[in-house]
Amino acid sequence: MTALLRYQAALLLRSQRWLPPFILYAAFLAIGVQSGQPVLDSLGYAAAALLPVAAWLVRICVTNEPPAARTCVAAAAGPARAHLACLLVALSASAALGTATTLVVTWISDPASAGHRVHVPRLDAGAAGVLAVLACALLGTAVGALTNWPLLRSPGRAVPTMLLAALLVLVVAGSPAQAAVRGLVTGSQSGHVPVPLLPLAGAALLAAASSALACALTARRSP
């Protein structure tokens, strides 16, 4: 599995297809996050913006190889393992991006609640932000796994479905991503730092189930 992960990571880096989602994420942050804003609000914005980026990275990873190369890798390592490596690399990239962003946002933001009334410890806020971005990275991976190859092969169907699903996951009540982001925003209003462990656990379960389904279908549809 280690060799597959290295192979997929090298493909992702060398393809440079990761640049558009990274640039888009940076643009969102430049617009929505500014120095001196309440830290929990800024962390909630950064976490929410990561979810579609994670789904986009999944699409990049699962479509990076030409069909002939994908067939060779599947024959050597197994189609399910090869597809799982794609999903894990995409998840790792989005989680690393979100964690680095959390550190920067925590550093430049004001450690205070909305209205700058109550002091918010930076360390506690940063830890809550990391949990929230991990939840959004996991859910973005789940969305990408369910809206791309092998479930949806046509880009004309896959891309709009992926974007719509990412939006719904962020706004629908009961979604782990919505709960994690709302917890940060609510905490900013009260000055209480949330610990979004339950949303993170729910996101992990959904990501595991979605990945298992995608890998199973990959194995079934492979020649």
What does the overall shape look like? elongated
Give the number of helices. 9
Structural class: mainly alpha
Q: In what range is the share of β-strand residues?
A: under 5%
Number of strands: 0
Q: If you compute it from the alpha carbons, what radius of gyration comes out, rounded to the nearest whole angstrom? A: 18 Å
- pLDDT < 50 stretches: none
Distance between the termini: 21 Å
Element order: H for helix, E for strand: HHHHHHHHH
Rounded average pLDDT: 93
Summarize the structure in short.
This protein has 223 residues and is mainly α. Helix content is 78%, strand content 0%. The longest helix is centred in the middle third of the chain and has 30 residues, at 79-108.
Describe this structure in words.
The chain is an all-alpha fold and 223 residues long. Helix content is 78%, strand content 0%. It contains nine helices and no strands. The longest helix is centred in the middle third of the chain and has 30 residues, at 79-108. The two termini are 21 Å apart.
Protein topology:
Layout: H1 2-15, H2 19-32, H3 39-62, H4 67-77, H5 79-108, H6 122-146, H7 155-171, H8 176-190, H9 197-221
Descriptors:
223 residues; 9 helices; mainly alpha
